[in-house]
Design brief:
By secondary structure, this protein is an alpha/beta fold. Helix content is 33%, strand content 20%. The protein has 3 helices and 5 strands; from the N terminus they run E-E-E-H-E-H-E-H. Strand 3, helix 1 and strand 4 form a beta-alpha-beta unit.
């Protein structure tokens, strides 16, 4: 928590969707500014997210989101529903 003349403030909460080059840069910037960072991507890049100091958010649904050439593929409707339910539960 940050203590200033105006009082005590909790750190900001940041949720990064997509952990490619720009997402990892956003994690680094957010952490540098003191934010509590959570991140998610359709590909399992949890090791990269943890190495940047963020928390990985897991969607409890078995579907491989990796496509051709390292890009993500389109997700099924069932996965999208599970994803939205997971994101609603994030504090």
């Amino acid at each position: 928590a940050e203590i200033t003349a105006a009082g005590k403030y909790p750190p900001s909460q940041t949720f990064i969707l997509g952990c490619g080059v720009a997402g990892l840069a956003a994690i680094g910037t957010s952490k540098a500014l003191g934010s509590v960072v959570r991140a998610w991507d359709v590909r399992d890049v949890s090791d990269q997210v943890h190495s940047m100091g963020a928390k990985w958010v897991s969607v409890d649904f078995k579907e491989d989101g990796a496509g051709v050439g390292g890009y993500a593929k389109e997700s099924s409707d069932a996965f999208k529903q599970a994803q939205q339910e997971t994101f609603r539960r994030i504090p």
